[in-house]
Amino acid sequence: MSPRVREPDAPPARVIPTWTEPLATAASRVVGGPLGRHALVGRSRFWTPLRVVLLLAVAVLALGWLGKAPCLQQYTTDDGTVALDWRNNRQYVAMCYSDTVPLWGIEGLDRGAVPYRDPWIDGEGTDDEQVRYMEYPVLTGYFQYANARLADAWVWAAGVVPILPTALPVVVYFDISAAWLALAWLVVVWAVRALRPNRPWDAALVALSPLVAVHVFTNFDALAVACATAGMLAFARRRPLLAGVLLGIGGAFKFYPLMLLLPVLLVAVRRRRIGTALRTIGAAVGAFVLVNAPVALLYPTGWAEFFRLNRTRPADPDSLYFVVQYFTGWAGFDGKLADGEQPVVLNAVSAVLFVLCCVGICVVALRAPQPPRVASLAFLTVATFLLVNKVWSPQYSLWLVPLAVLALPRWRLLLAWMAVDALVWAPRMYYYLTPANKGLPPDWFLGTVVVRDAFVVLLCVLVVRSVLRPDTDPVRAAPGRRPEADPDWPAAVPTPSSQVVSATR
């Protein structure tokens, strides 16, 4: 008699996009059509799906850098000095604007100002002058500072070693920042691929997203997206503490990764695994506090600048509130505000609407016939926040890219949304240019904002449908996967008591 222990369930069969995705099927005709049914899959030693999607990501990231390159051009002024060429509104006409470039001078990075400690005067010499500090969360602020010092070191080294390429310090600063942001997005692609081992080609949507080409270097959000996606991977790999730390660190780059704690908690309630969620939440809060506390204690006024700015910002042109105001002539919830005056009612309405959205997500999660997937609830949480928030900066759309791919991997639909969202950038730039400078009136830009929001609402509806009707979920419907399985939830570790033992001679 010898015991025989049942082996763990085999991983689900790999999903072949040319069999399941009409877009992939049509595209495959260029190279001979869909994969044959007797083809050997997974035998290539070098060109693995991960390496292919990373190579695609590098190509799109290079395209993104080239898109910003017109704003890095230099020219010689009349007095013989070299300056950055933003003449004649080049940043809008060429659609190459990036926050990185103006922040170099505005926030004193060129002068060695230490974030949160060293202020500057905005509007100095005018009636509206104001003391300002670094306006970003702590890790984003010090990320900028570190890159500025690296740029100084590079420019110095190029003066000593003539063979080193160099440029204006602000251009070197942009390129160093772009290198780190590109690396962060490669982490996002890698994490999505790791989260979907049976759907490796879904990561190609993250790598090839038009939003990446347009916005990955517009601001610094790729850092937070990398932390959030890596945190989801750590959670799925049964490392809840590491997941919490990554989400907390991501929250110190941009606040949105902390929103993913709500989906984790809701799925934990459904699966009766509250302890797992509490460990992740505790680690996330601890990491966030640990990063922020030293700065908050040493420079409380500078640290609070981020929160002050978000309270006092009016409705941005990207928001539905601004759209309604423009097309209806409505003065807004707070009426006409003075510069710097806080829109109290708008802040309250936006907060209440997001709370109501979270309540709705809780209801959907609790009424679902099966425990919902973490990625589905995460997408709904972040998407509804953006829809009801008073600010939707263009690079915020990057937050949704990996979440949408993980929640609803329908290629044609997602690429259509990404393309529309990326195209919003063109009328935005010409809206900032203004008709007086041969730009566009606001109607064009605000119209595309409405179309983008409609796409996101449609995605939310389809994700809710996949939660309430799991048979419509393309991830759960994959061959070989149990209907109740969630690849984003840590699988239970087999224990001796749960193993099936049979006696054999």
Textual characterization of the structure:
The chain starts with a strand and ends with a strand. A two-stranded antiparallel sheet has the order 1-6. Strands 2-3 form a two-stranded antiparallel sheet. Strands 4-5 form a two-stranded antiparallel ribbon. The chain is built from 22 helices and six strands. It has helices at 17-20, 22-28, 49-68, 90-93, 100-106, 138-160, 169-195, 203-207, 210-215, 221-236, 240-253, 261-271, 274-298, 300-303, 305-312, 320-328, 344-367, 374-388, 400-407, 411-423, 425-433, 442-468; strands at residues 2-5, 74-76, 82-84, 120-122, 130-132, 501-504. The protein is mostly helical.
Would you kindly provide a brief summary of this structure?
The chain contains 22 helices and 6 strands.
Name a few traits of the molecule.
505 residues; mainly alpha; two-stranded antiparallel sheet; 6 strands; 4% strand; disordered N terminus; disordered C terminus
